[in-house]
Amino acid sequence: MDDELLELQRQFEFAQQAKSSIRLSERNVVELVQKLQHLQIIDFELLHTVSGKEYITLDQLRNEMVAEVKKLGRVSLIDLADATGVDLYYVEKQAQNVVAEHRELMLTQGEIMSESYWDSIAEETNERLQECSQIALTELAAQLNVGLDLVASVLEPRLGTIVKGRLEGGQLYTPAYVARVSAMVRGATRGITVPTNLTVVWSSLQQLLQEIDGTSGLAVEGSFFQSLFNGLVKEARF
Question: Which helix (DSSP H) or strand (DSSP E) does residue 14 occupy?
Answer without folding.
Answer: helix 2-17
